[in-house]
């Protein structure tokens, strides 16, 4: 038997990782652990990591082992060093954001901040690359005056990607999202100020800090600064993540983008050129699908924008 002075190692899930300590969730409570040694390297411990730890008899425990990750969601971080070439001189490294996630929920508000379809698409590409189930959740439906929600549902129709929506004034609108989260580990990803933490608080009963939307630029203020994993009342876990301003597609080759871009997969493999980027090449099966309406033209436009970026021809959106 283990007593308070003879603590036994336990298994847990990392709830939040900071520079030198982390919170581990196990047996219905949080255990604070010190992070040392090789785990001090940035990204070696993130929310969702499964760990074996030695709880502290009093105070801080110790992480003994991080188990291999089944999935990792990474996000490009742009280095801040100065360079003579402002655009191409920026160094971009991939930082893990969350581990062992099954489902990625792209959260975007209809307004305040405005819906950014390019950002939603690039997050969907990141989800496909990390092999995560995608879901789009649109917030602030109370601000919908022109049927914009229906418009976005149509834009993403036929992709096997649920497009759900809610507003905080009517909590019953959260029911479909609640249902989609049960039993999975999901991560909420989206621009700052779209209402990720507000969603989590309403669903999980937490009281994490939510921000004000600054009326002037309507861009949010980065209220959440560390990814945070919380348990759901009906089973499952959700990770709230810090808002993103941009989401570069570092590491995606131009010829691979179509494999990850929403709904393009069925048209691949028939192009005349094996390394076809589906832009101007002759004998392109994707362009043929766009020409006869089997692939929507407005979605193809989004593909071309991201293609330009991964080909190094333009900046980010
Ligand atoms: N009108 C309206 N406002 C909402 C809704 N959901 C959230 N908000 C407001 O949007 C603002 C930002 O909400 P947060 O939950 O902090 O947004 P966030 O996505 O977590 O932001 P970061 O942590 O910065 O990434 C707050 O003032 C919320 O009250 C909604 O359904 N309707
Ligand atoms: Mg937040
Ligand atoms: Zn092609």
Secondary structure topology:
Blueprint: E1 10-17, E2 21-26, E3 29-34, E4 50-54, E5 61-66, E6 72-78, E7 92-99, E8 103-109, H1 117-129, E9 133-139, H2 148-155, E10 163-165, H3 175-181, E11 185-189, H4 196-204, E12 228-231, E13 237-240, H5 257-260, H6 285-291, H7 297-310
Helix pairs in contact: 1-7
Bound molecules: guanosine-5'-triphosphate, magnesium ion and zinc ion (ZN).
Walk me through this protein's architecture.
With 317 residues, the protein is of the alpha/beta class. It has 3 domains: 10-66, Nucleic acid-binding proteins (OB fold (Dihydrolipoamide Acetyltransferase, E2P)), CATH 2.40.50.140; 72-80 and 90-240, Rossmann fold; 254-310, Ribonucleotide Reductase Protein R1, domain 1, CATH 1.10.40.50. The protein is 20% helix and 24% strand. The protein contains 7 helices and 13 strands. The chain has a 6-stranded mixed beta sheet, sandwiched between helices. It has a 5-stranded mixed β-barrel with strand order 1-2-3-5-4. Strands 6-7 form a two-stranded antiparallel sheet. Strand 4 and strand 5 form a beta hairpin. It is globular, with a radius of gyration of 21 Å. The model is unreliable at 1-6 and 81-88 (pLDDT under 50). Bound molecules: guanosine-5'-triphosphate, magnesium ion and zinc ion (ZN). Zinc ion binds next to helix 6. Magnesium ion binds at residues 196-197, 223-224, 240.
């Amino acid at each position: 038997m283990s007593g308070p002075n003879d603590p036994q190692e336990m298994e847990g899930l990392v709830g939040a990782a900071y520079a030198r300590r982390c919170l581990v969730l196990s047996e219905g409570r949080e255990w604070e652990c010190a992070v040392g040694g090789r785990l001090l390297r940035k990204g070696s411990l993130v929310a969702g990591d499964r760990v074996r730890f030695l709880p502290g008899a009093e105070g801080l425990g110790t992480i003994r082992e991080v188990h291999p990750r089944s999935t990792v969601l990474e996000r490009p971080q742009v280095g801040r060093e100065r360079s003579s070439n402002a655009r191409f001189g920026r160094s971009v490294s991939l930082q893990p954001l969350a581990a062992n996630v099954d489902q990625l929920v792209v959260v975007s508000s209809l307004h305040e901040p405005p819906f950014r379809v390019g950002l939603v698409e690039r997050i969907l590409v990141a989800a496909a690359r990390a092999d995560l189930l995608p879901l789009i959740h649109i917030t602030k439906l109370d601000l919908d005056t022109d049927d914009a929600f229906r418009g976005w549902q149509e834009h993403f129709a036929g992709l096997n990607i649920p497009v759900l929506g809610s507003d905080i004034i009517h909590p019953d609108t959260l029911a479909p999202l609640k249902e989609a989260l049960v039993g999975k580990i999901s991560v909420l990803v989206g621009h700052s100020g779209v209402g990720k933490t507000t969603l989590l608080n309403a669903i999980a009963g937490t009281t994490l800090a939510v921000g004000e939307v600054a009326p002037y630029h309507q861009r949010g203020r980065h209220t959440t600064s560390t990814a945070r994993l919380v348990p759901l009342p009906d089973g499952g876990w959700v990770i709230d993540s810090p808002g993103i301003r941009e989401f570069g597609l570092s590491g995606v080759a131009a010829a691979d983008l179509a494999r990850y871009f929403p709904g393009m997969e069925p048209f691949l493999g028939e192009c005349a050129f094996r390394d076809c980027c589906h832009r101007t090449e002759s004998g392109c099966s994707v362009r043929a699908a766009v020409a006869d309406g089997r692939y929507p033209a407005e979605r193809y436009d989004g593909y071309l924008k991201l293609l330009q970026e991964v080909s190094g021809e333009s900046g980010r959106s």
